[in-house]
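Ticket 4471: requesting a sanity check on a complex prediction with tryptophan. Repro inputs:
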Amino acid sequence: MNQKVILSGMRPTGRLQLGNLLGALDNWVKLQHTHRCFFSVVDWHALTTGYEDTSEIRENVYEMVTDWLSAGLDPEKNVIFRQSDVKEHAELYLLFSMFTPISWLERCPTYKDQIEQLREKNLATYGFLGYPLLQAADILVYRADAVPVGEDQAPHIEMTREVARRFNHLYKPVFPEPATILNKVKLLPGIDGRKMSKSYGNTIEMSENPDEIRRKVTQMITDPGRIRKDDPGNPDVCTVFSFHGVFSADAVADVEAVCRRGEIGCVQCKKQLGEKLVSYMEPIFERRQQLTGKPEYIREILESGAKKASEVAAKTMELVREAMNLTL
Ligand code: TRP
Ligand code: SF4
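Returned structure tokens:
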């Protein structure tokens, strides 16, 4: 089988949320049937901003793999591994650093943004500047054909192509220029209508059980102008309605109409959403139940993933060393 190669990764920074599921994992789960997929928990990338306190990083790696498997990633079909277990990423990153102009990294839009946003941290470090180059190595060490990512990551994939081009031009054509597969954005607000964010305490996590999900739906903010349940409602300002847009594709037009005519109460409308959301999340919750308390199973997946990833990465590095005259 000559399947195209996919690589993607996530930083292990804690439990995944509904947004990660819709924005990324659901796409990965689809791609696993048609592509040769490598999915990496990029713990070195987590260190670029979290180098001061590494006490939770191991735990977060296990947690993240558990979330991935719960979402339906099949460890038999895909190579699931931790970045720091495959040292070839580091070697390729080092070699790339020899010919990558600092200006490419300084100009990267995510660089200045993040320094601004994470002001409480000192990100004037070498490692943080090199973040996109390490990402390029993650991708190119598998000679990936495509990378599924969110819009925010597009500049990094563009830089990856530039690095590949530069290598191919300076030495020998070793790398394909990987395409970006943009995740379709289904933007979900938090349950209070603001941006979903841990710091606001308004998230829905992937690991929540059906009762927690139902409870969170009852807490969602609806049209604040609606007092009695037969007042006409305005779905445009209602969080419940935003969720219906994603989870009740078949019924959303109907919900909108009956809301505007005041023919449905918010309590009932939330009940309907709650059941939709539960039927979407319940299989994930159940798979997670099967996995909890089995860290040795996750560990085996990571060990065998690292072995499979290393085999491919080692072959690429032979080509790279040969192209650069670094062989004996
Ligand atoms: N930078 C990515 C993010 O924050 C994570 C990442 C690291 C990645 N290496 C990657 C994504 C390689 C895709 C491919 O989401
Ligand atoms: Fe929102 Fe539904 Fe209430 Fe309309 S009826 S305001 S869509 S919860």
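Notes from triage: Residues 222-223, 226, 233, 235, 238, 240-241, 255, 259, 264, 266, 269-270 surround iron/sulfur cluster (ligand 2) (CB under 6 Å). Leaving this open until the requester confirms.
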